[in-house]
């Protein structure tokens, strides 16, 4: 099996989970200034970084890097920490509890499950282990992505059946293990203390991602079963994992991206390709990982119906990482995706700068360190606010402001007053993540991302697949063999997973 077919580097590192406590370590800092211009790649100007620039001049295959700036020539923005505190703490302007009664929250076009599919995808693309949330002017090529920036399902397969044999059944070396005697079909594999034995422990952060992880395992096992009469040994895993990856990538390309960027931009990406992402580069834009893709936090509902009998649950009520999952809490996917024509699934929360109150005061167990004498040895409340942490990343990586990127893209620039920032906000500009959330609300009623957010998110996913020579896009004419009519959706995957039983 080639190195590519054996996903590597998905081992967890301390203090670096996603999205709550990723990058708690110290980072090397640089004072290199940014320029003031943006250009589509292929134009004249400075390269994204000394590392990623190799991809622009050679033709020897993709360059695997870490992180880079999609808009390297745009000036940075820093925001006053006390302004961030006032904006993001409980009871502040971003607390959904401040929303007036009767206003709709459910997105009619994005079912609730896509929030957690998005988190699963993030865990397959990025694992930032060196950045420092307290840092300033950290350059993207000075932190590290501990996993491959490709949609290779390394969070499922780990390093493959040779190096991570504990994930696999010894009988064939290809079937993935899951379950336990008292819950054989409803939980991932766990040790005697409840710790998940999976390719990426972040997929046990909450029950919904955990259950999606289990569904992909079961889909893989069905593919292994279907191929077992044709292949054996290492060839069985290689063939099965490739087919699973391509079906999974098909879902991302044809469904997930389209829902989040909207039909118009999606059509442009299909016909024109990415305009701001360097060709032939395997890396993740810092504007994506530290801002735009944190869009998913704004789509988390206040309450979820998990199954027929478990209703009104908040995300952190459901399952604590590293604990056994109760059979009665098993997710019924008909409430999260369109798996049952008789049931309308819950919608993801509409995009807005109003965030579920629970996310403004995270459980302290999820946030290691950051003790502060000012708060009697407990974490600064700003570190327990997920929006607060997101906006601290703006300062750490000196990202361009939302209006700065909008101007560079030639699209509408919304003012701070239109964005709903407080009148005493200490800047004429808005942080990129905040801007992207409100832009979606103003431009598209919160149903999908606006021009800035959609461009960054859409180009990143398209480029991840286009720049990976082993993605399904490079097997011309390939169509899914599962699903119906040459199409394959997350609903198809879930139906197959529900039908699969461990032997």
From TrEMBL:
Major localization class: secreted
UniProt-annotated location(s): Secreted
Alphabetical keyword list: Glycoprotein, Secreted
Highest rank taxon of the organism: Bacteria
Polar residues: bias regions: 46-58
A biological process from GO: response to oxidative stress
Molecular functions per Gene Ontology: heme binding; peroxidase activity
Pfam short name (any one): An_peroxidase
Residue segments, region Disordered: 1-58
GO cellular component: extracellular region
SUPFAM superfamilies found in the cross-reference section: Heme-dependent peroxidases
Protein name (database record): Peroxidase
Species of provenance: Myxococcus llanfairpwllgwyngyllgogerychwyrndrobwllllantysiliogogogochensis
Lineage: Bacteria, Pseudomonadati, Myxococcota, Myxococcia, Myxococcales
